[in-house]
Amino acid sequence: MYRPFAAVRLPLLVALALLVPLAIGGALLANGQGVSVLRVAWIAAGTGELTAAPRHPPVDTPVDLQLVAAAAERAGVGVVFAPMGRAAAEAALAGGGVDLLMPSAHAAPPASLPYRAKRDVLLCARGLALPERPGLEALAQAYERGWRIATVRDAPYGSAIQTLAHPHAGQTLTFGNAALAIAAIVEGRAQCVLAPRLALLGALAAAPAAEAALARRVVDVATTELYLNFAASVPPETVARFRAALQGLADEGAAEAIEAKAARPVLFRFAVAAPWFSWFDMIGTVAFALSGVLIARSEGFSLLGAFVLAGLPAVGGGVMRDLLVGRDTIGILASPVSLLLVTGTVLVAYLAGAAARRLAALREGGPRRWPRALSPAAVLEVTDAIGLAAFTVIGVSVAVRSGAEPLWLWGPFLAALSGAGGGILRDLLRSGYENPALRTSFYAEVCVLWGLALSLGILYLLPDDKPALVRQMVVVTVLGAFATRMAVVALKVRSPRF
Predict the structure, then answer these.
(1) Pair 420, 356 in one domain
(2) Which distant-in-sequence residues (6+ apart) come within 8 Å of 327 by Cβ?
(3) DSSP H or E run through 119
(4) Are residues 294 and 184 in the same domain?
C-alpha cells in the first residue's frame, strides 16, 4: 500500500530531534539562563538628542542607544530595544518583561551601571531677566519669582532637581517632549523649560520660528549621571561584561567620540534652520535654474529642454548626493519647494522673454541697454555665487547627518556634488566633453575648499556646548565661498590645467 507520508517520516523525525533542543535552549536564554540577548526598555522622552525611534538610521539614533549598542557588541551580548514610558518600563523590569532599563537617574538594585552624564539647562522666554545664581540656585530663583517651569515627562531628572521642584508642583508643567515644552513658552503658558541642552536644540531646529520668543543663552542647572538598571534575572557575569565594555569605551575615548558624533547632526540642523539660510538656499536654487534658462534661450532649446537645463543645476546635484549617501527620503521628495522654484523660474522667464520681445518690437529705437553692473549676466553671477555658497554648506550638512566618515573627505566631496554636480550634468548634456566646469572654470573647486574648511572646523573646533559657534562657522563658510567665487569671476581665475 502506498503511504504518502512514509517518505518524509524519517527526515521529519530528525528535524524535530534537532529543533526541540534548540527551542528548549531558546526558552532558557529568554528566561535569563545564559543570557545572550537582552530586552532593553528604552525610555525615549527627553533622553536622546533626537526623538527618533530605534529603526532610524544610525546617525539619527539617540546617543543613549548608540552607547549601549556599542557596549553590548563589545561585551558579546545582543540587545533589542523597546521604547516605553517610564511607568511601563519600571513595571516591565520588575515583572521580568525586560532585562534592562535605560536611562535612569537613580541606581536601582540588584545591578546598575553609570554610562554617561547629561546636562540639564534652563531656557527662558526672551525679555525675562535671567537668574543670576549658578546651577540649581538658578532654578530655585526661577521658582521664587513665580515662574512656571516646563519639564519633559518621563525624562531622567536627578534627585536634586526633583527635590527642588517637589514643593513647587503647581509651577511645574510636564509635556511629552522638548518641542511641546518650548511651544508652551511661545504661547505664554510657561516662562522657562528645563531639559537636556541638545534636546532643546533639536526641538528648535524643527521649529525655528520659536527661537524669536526665547532668550539668547541658557543657564546650566545640573549634570545628571545616567544608569543602566538590570533585572534580577540577568546573570552577574553579563553585568560584569557590560561594565568592562563601558569602561573600555570610556578609557579609549570611543564613548566621547560617539557622543560628539551624535551631537553634530543636531547642532548642524540648528545652525541651518535660521531663516536667512533658507533664503540663501532659495536664491541659489533660482539662480541655478536661471543659468539653465539663459542657456536654453541662447541655444534655441524647447520649453521642455529649458525645464531640463534649469532643473539639472538646481536640483540634480542634490539628487545625486542624496542617492549616494542613501538619504531617506531624498530632498526633493521631502519638500517640493525646490521643484516649484525651478518650475516658476522657467515659466516666469518664458513669459518675461515673450513680453520683452513684443515690447522691443513696438518700441522705437530698439531695446534699452542695461548698465554693465546691472546687466542680467552680472546679476546672475552674484546670485549664482550665493547659491554655490549655500549649497556648499548643505553638502557638508548632509555628510554630517548621514554619518559619512571620514568627514574631512566626504564633507568637501558632497559640497562639490551639491554645488556643481548638477551644472556638470547640464553641460555634459548640452556640450559633451567640452565642459567648462571640467576643463577651465574654477567653480567646483570653491565648494571643495570651503567644504573642507567647514568639515575641519566641525571636527576640531566644535564643542557641543557652543551651538552659536556652529552658526558662526556656517556664516563664515557662506561669506567665504561667496567672496571666493566673486573674486574668481572678477579676476578671471582659471582652474589649473592637467
Answers:
(1) yes
(2) 321, 398, 402
(3) strand 111-124
(4) no
Per-residue confidence (pLDDT) for residue 371, from 0 to 100? 57
- Report phi then psi at 217, rounded to 5: -135, 160
Asked if 80 and 163 sit in the same domain, the reply is no
β-bridge pairing 100-104 and 219-230? antiparallel
For residue 437, give the nearest of 380, 383, 388, 376 by alpha carbon: 388
* Per-residue CA distances from 41 to 208, 231, 259, 471 (Å): 32, 11, 21, 36
Give the cell for residue 142.
Answer: 526661577
What pLDDT is attached to residue 30?
41
The pLDDT mean for the chain works out to: 82
The parent domain of residue 206 ranges over 117-224
**Alpha-carbon distance 185 to 193, whole Å?**
8
Is residue 23 assigned to a domain?
no
Per-residue DSSP letters for 43-69? E-TTTSSS---TTS-GGGS-HHHHHHH
**Residue 64, number of CB atoms within 10 A of its CB:** 26
348, three cell numbers: 516666469
Domain count for the chain, please give it.
3
Rg value, the chain, Cα: 29
Residue 12 in domain: no
For residues 479 and 351, membership in a common domain is answered with yes
Which amino acid, residue 145? Answer: R
Whether the model clears a pTM of 0.90, i.e. scores above it, the answer is no
Q: Which of 179-183, 187-191, 416-420, 462-466 has the lowest mean pLDDT?
A: 462-466
Q: Do 150 and 168 sit in the same domain of this protein? A: yes
Same domain, 345 and 453: yes
Q: Are 297 and 357 in contact (CB under 8 A)?
A: no
With vertex at residue 170, the alpha carbon angle to CA 164 and CA 174, rounded to the nearest 5 degrees, is: 80
- Is 93 in contact with 228 (CB distance < 8 Å)? no
Same domain? 298 vs 248 = no
CB atoms within 10 A of CB 151: 23
CATH of the domain at 172: 3.40.190.10
Residues 106 and 252 in one domain: yes
Last residue of a domain, one of 212, 240, 262: 262
Distance CA 301, CA 165 (A): 69
Residue 331, burial from CB neighbour count under 10 angstroms (0-12, 13-18, 19+): middle
* Bigger pLDDT: 441 vs 308: 308
DSSP string, 1-45: ---TTHHHHHHHHHHHHHHHHHHHHHHHHHTTTT--EEEEEEE-T
pLDDT tier at 55 (50, 70, 90 boundaries)? very low
Q: Which residue has the higher pLDDT, 12 or 312?
A: 312
